[in-house]
TrEMBL record:
Highest taxon in the source lineage: Eukaryota
Protein species of origin: Cuscuta europaea (European dodder)
Name of protein: DUF4371 domain-containing protein
Start and end residues of each DUF4371 domain: 2-181
InterPro entries recorded: AtLOH3-like, DUF4371, RNaseH-like_sf
Length: 476
């Protein structure tokens, strides 16, 4: 009896462990005995039983009804035990070392807020490790709530907040304000918990939101691409908009470029849908989209976004590379800021002329720039200026300034200096970037209290020995 119970439990544990390691679901939609597919967990037990008579004799139909060890509750308990063991192993690997936290939020199927916590550290062999550590349901996403939950998870495994040496969050989410508050709370408690923006995250997501109208138009264009807007005559809109490969708008930048390039074709399709759509709603949507697209405001914003993203796209692409050269990335950040600033200071006249020519080509009315601008909600500081100033200051300058603000908030001088100095520790290309002065500067400027004075004095000589003994090693 005991051996049978033991084998039955071990079978369930092994199946749960294998499915979890493969990222597979355990449960099935129909787990009844008459179901043709009872879910991965039960089907895997059945498969193991078919290859082993001992297993077959103690599981599923041959198991006691009160000790089958296959219920959802048992599965959850096994998962919980395995997760705890994994966390303890991660905690053991961290030891007393410093570590970084990476946090993101999302909503589960029940619309409850949840927070994922990832730990990043250097193990005893010198390898960088990054492990998912926990997911926590939170009652709200206020900065103080998030900090309390993170600290609770860390303290549960005796991880000291004072050992945090870096923090990273999703800077483009609608929780940016809360993330900024959370960042400040940890910095107040641990001044060395430097915030570094997630470089792999698409910077374009933070640079794209210039207007609601632009987003709506891109959605209309996406609908045209996948054929959701059909005409009464059954025309193929994707064909009208040339080849699908040319309309595969996989990023915001390519979306804007595609819409500019195929503006006439897009308008033609919308006109056709407006006239021959299957129903009143479809025809109304097409009419509204056409009116919006063929307005000066929309064309102005479309070209403005293209102009800005033309400058930022190279940086965005570089930051998404798995193997990043931080030095080059920081140079790209600096040059991107300079080019955006140059656009602000001297790009207005040329930009406005491009927009006017485009409007004339597509028969879109261009407003008289010298006419007085009528403010919908009057403010004392906005009275008595013309339309040209409105587009130049309220739209052109405002959009550019917001992009500069995003770049400066993610890549301020302190973070750029910290990342640049850290490159001295990069082992790539036989420690090509190794620099004794940079490492010593890193200690003095950013981690002075992590080293006692005697260690600081000896560090330079240790690094010099390292440079001679390791960098000149014949196997490197």
């Amino acid at each position: 009896m005991k051996e049978g119970n033991r084998l039955r439990v071990m079978t369930s544990i092994d199946v749960v462990r294998w499915l979890a390691s493969q990222g597979c679901a355990l449960r099935g939609h129909d787990e009844s005995s008459s179901s043709r597919n009872r879910g991965n967990f039960l089907e895997m037990i059945s498969l193991l039983a078919s290859y082993n008579e001992q297993v077959a004799s103690v599981v599923l139909d041959n198991a006691p009804k009160n000790a089958m060890y296959t219920s959802p509750k048992i599965q959850k308990e096994i998962l919980h035990i395995l997760a705890t063991k994994v966390r303890h192993r991660i905690r053991h690997d961290i030891g007393d070392s410093k570590f970084c936290i990476i946090v993101d939020e999302a909503r589960d199927e029940s619309k409850r807020e949840q927070m994922a916590i990832i730990l990043r550290f250097v193990d005893e062999k010198g390898f960088i490790r990054e492990h998912f550590f926990d997911v926590v349901h939170v009652r709200d996403t206020a900065a103080m709530t998030l900090k309390k939950e993170i600290c609770a998870v860390l303290s549960r495994f005796c991880l000291d907040v004072q050992n945090i040496r870096g923090q990273g969050y999703d800077g483009a989410s609608n929780m940016r304000g809360e993330w900024n508050g959370l960042k400040a709370l940890f910095l107040n408690e641990c001044p060395y918990a430097y915030y570094v923006h997630c470089l792999a995250h698409r910077l374009q997501l933070a640079l794209v939101a210039a207007s609601r109208e632009e987003a709506q138009a891109l959605e209309i264009a996406r609908m045209l691409e996948i054929g959701e807007l059909e005409t009464g005559r059954g025309l193929n809109q994707v064909g009208t908009l040339q080849r699908a490969g040319e309309t595969r708008w996989s990023s915001h930048f390519s979306s804007v470029c595609s819409l500019i390039r195929m503006f006439a074709a897009t308008c033609s399709v919308l006109e056709d849908v407006e006239e021959n759509g299957n129903n009143y709603s479809t025809r109304g949507d097409a009419a509204g989209a056409l009116k919006k697209i063929k307005s000066f405001d929309f064309v102005f914003l479309l070209h403005l976004i293209k102009e800005i993203m033309s400058i930022t796209d190279l940086l965005c692409q570089h930051l998404q590379k798995k193997s990043q050269d931080i030095i080059n990335a920081m140079h790209l950040v600096s040059s991107t800021k300079m080019l955006i600033q140059k656009l602000r200071e001297g790009g207005w006249d040329n930009f406005l002329e491009i927009v006017k020519v485009f409007c004339q080509k597509h028969e879109i009315e261009v407003p008289n720039m010298k006419s007085p601008y009528v403010v919908k909600r009057k403010r004392h500081d906005q009275e008595g200026f013309d339309i040209e100033r409105h587009y130049r200051v309220d739209m052109f300058y405002a959009a550019i300034d917001s992009q500069l603000l995003e770049l400066n908030s993610r890549f301020n001088e302190q973070i750029m200096d910290l990342l640049t100095l850290s490159c001295a520790l990069d082992p790539k290309d036989s420690y090509k970037s190794f620099n004794v002065d940079d490492i010593c500067s890193l200690v003095d400027k950013y981690y002075p209290f992590d080293f006692i004075e005697q260690e600081k004095v000896g560090l330079r000589f240790q690094l010099q020995h390292y440079k001679l003994n390791v960098l000149n090693h014949p196997k490197l």
